[in-house]
Amino acid sequence: MSTNIPENDFELRSLDATCLNESELVHPYWYNLKYLIVGIVFGIVFVKAEIISWFRIQEMFRLQSFHMYGVIGSAVVVGAISVFLIKKFKIKTIYGEPIHFEVKTFNIGQVYGGLLFGLGWAITGACPGPLFAQIGTGITVTIVTLLSAIAGTWVYGLVRNKIPH
Amino acid sequence: MMDWIKQPWPWYVAGPLIGLTVPALLLIGNKRFGISSSLRHICAACFPANIHYFKYDWKKEIWNLFFVGGIFLGGLIAAQLLANPQPIQVNSALVSELKGYGISDYSKLIPTEIFNWESLLHIKGWLLMVFGGFLVGFGTRYAGGCTSGHSITGLSNLQWPSLVATICFMAGGFIMANLILPIILR
Fold first, then answer.
1. Which of A69, A93, A136, B186 is deepest in the core (most CB within 10 A)?
2. Among residues 125-164 of chain B, which lie with CB inside 8 Å of chain A?
3. Is residue B74 within 8 Å of residue A42, measured between CB atoms?
4. What pLDDT, on the 0 to 100 scale, is given for residue A15?
5. Is B66 on the interface with A (CB under 8 A)?
6. Which of A134, A88, A57, A91 is nearest to B181 (CA)?
7. pLDDT score at B1
8. What is the reported pLDDT for A30?
9. Residue A19 pLDDT > 50, yes or no?
C-alpha cells in the first residue's frame, strides 16, 4: 500500500478484508504456495457441497433449503471459536508473529454496497469465490461474469469519491 | 470411500471446513480470509489507470491471488476426479418454478440453458452475466468485503458492521431472487 493515502480517506485499510494483519515478514514467492494449497482444498469443498451452484443460491433466497444456511452458519461458528481461541491463548503464526484483530468501522457503503452485491449474487448465483471455482469446473462462460466483476471493482475505484460512504 | 466422496457433501462437513479457513490463513501467515479483494488486486496489477484506489503495492497482497488460483484449481480437481455423476437435487418447488422459464437441465451446477456463450447475444444472458457480474464486483468493493470477508471472517470476529453488510447481502438477494429475477427469466 502506498503511503500517500491521507489519514482522513474513508477507504482506510480496515475496510478491506485482506489488507489487515499483514505479515511484516518478507518471504520468497514460493512461500505463497501454501495459500494455493488452502485455496485448492477450499475450491474442492465449494464444488462438492454445491456452494458454487446457481440452483443452491436460488433455493437459499427462496427459503427452500437449509443447505446454504447450514454451510454459512456452521462456518461462522467454527470461525468464531477459532478466533476466540487464538485471542484467548494469544496463539502466534507459524513464524512466531502475534495475530491482531482489528475493529471494523461502519460506513453506509456496507448498506448500499451490500444491497448491490446481494442483487448480483442472486442473479449470477455466485459470490466472488465461486466464480473462480466455476471456471475451474469447466464452465467457461463464467469468465465473462468474472471479467465483469473486475470491471465493477474498477468502476468503484473510479467513482468512489463521488458516492456516499 | 470414493462413492461417499463423489456424493454431494452435506453442510455439516462443508461449513466447518470453510470455517477452518479463517484460522488456517491466520496461522500460516497472518492473512485475513477474504476473496473479493482479489478483484481489486487484479485491477491494481493490470489496469491501475492512475486511479488512487489502485495505486498500492499489490505485490504485497499476492498471496490473495495464489489463494484464488487455488480455488480455480480446486474446482478443476473436483470436476475431473470427484464429480457427482447424478444431476443436482433441488427443492421441487424450485424445479416447477424454473420449468416455467424453460430451465430443466440439472446436469451441471448452473443452468446451461441460460448461462452459455450464445445467450450473451440476448438481453437476458447479458443481464445475468455482464450486469450481474458488474454488481458483484462493484457491490463487494463498496461494501468492503463479500461473503468471505464480512459474513465469515467479520462475523467470526463479532464485528457488527459485518452483520449489517451480511443482512444487506441477504436483503438484496431476496429482492432479486423473488421479485426481479422472475421478470428477467420470463
1. A136
2. 127-162, 164
3. yes
4. 44
5. yes
6. A57
7. 79
8. 86
9. no
Q: The pTM is what?
A: 0.92
Dihedral angle, C-alpha A101, A102, A105, A110, nearest 10 ° = -60
Helices B132-143 and A109-124: angle between axes, nearest 10 degrees: 150
Please answer whether residues A11 and A160 qualify as being in contact, where contact means their C-beta atoms are separated by less than 8 angstroms: yes
For residue A104, the SS3 value is coil
- Grid cell 482479489 in the structure block, residue: B38
Nearest to B178 among A34, A62, A152 (CB): A62
Interface of B with A in 13-52 (CB under 8 A): 13-40, 42-43, 47, 49, 51-52
Query: ipTM of this predicted complex?
Result: 0.96
Which residues in A lie closer than 8 A to residue B16 (C-beta atoms)?
A: 74-75, 77-78
List Cα–Cα distances, A105 to A4, A79, B149, in angstroms.
21, 20, 14
To 10 degrees, the CA torsion angle through A45, A51, A53, A58? 170
Nearest chain A Cα distance for residue B160, angstroms: 8
- Return the closest-CA partner of residue B111 out of A142, A64, A146, A54: A54
Do the chains contact at A149 and B134, CB–CB below 8 Å?
Answer: yes
B58 touches chain A (CB under 8 A): no
Answer yes or no: do B40 and A157 touch at CB < 8 A. Answer: yes
Q: Is B145 left (phi over 0), alpha (psi -120 to 50) or beta?
A: left
Mutation site, B6, B7, B18, interface A, largest A CB count within 10 A: B18
Whether A149 and B137 have beta carbons less than 8 Å apart is answered as yes
The amino acid sitting at B75 is G
Residue with cell 482489528: A102
